[in-house]
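Thought: the user asked what VTC domain-containing protein looks like in 3D. I have the sequence; next I should run the structure tool and report back without guessing.
Action: structure_tool
Action Input:
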Amino acid sequence: MRGEEHALDGARRGFLAGVLRGAYGIEAPRALRPSLVTDYRRATFVADGQRITCDAALVVRDVATGRTAAADSGLVLVETKTRGKLTEADRVLHRYGLRAAEFTKYCGGFAAVRPELGANRWARAVRVAFPRVTGPGAET
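Observation:
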């Protein structure tokens, strides 16, 4: 997968421009291009007003440098979604000692493939999630 193959077409640019103008009162930048390609497998579970997504086999690729980071093979990112309160899924995860962490695939992935950017609050999560970075200039 190459970033240039996924550039915004006219319809998507129009949608983005409308959202940015309407929500923020700003114009869309003219030179938008892909920066990070993410690939993962997702399972979604929905019941009783709750939604849980489980993302596994996460791989990110920096379009500019070609560096790639693969998440630990046993890692599953679990996100629970509801309106305002803990869900039963949250309580089950808590019973197993798992707590919420602020982490996004985009920011964590970029921090992994471009360590010069710094990971700041995600440093530990990035080291755990992405133990292997490969490609030009990757630290070994």
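Thought: the tool returned a structure. Summarizing for the user.
Final Answer: Structure for VTC domain-containing protein predicted. Residues 10-24 form the longest helix (15 residues). Helices lie at 10-24, 88-95, 105-113, 123-129.
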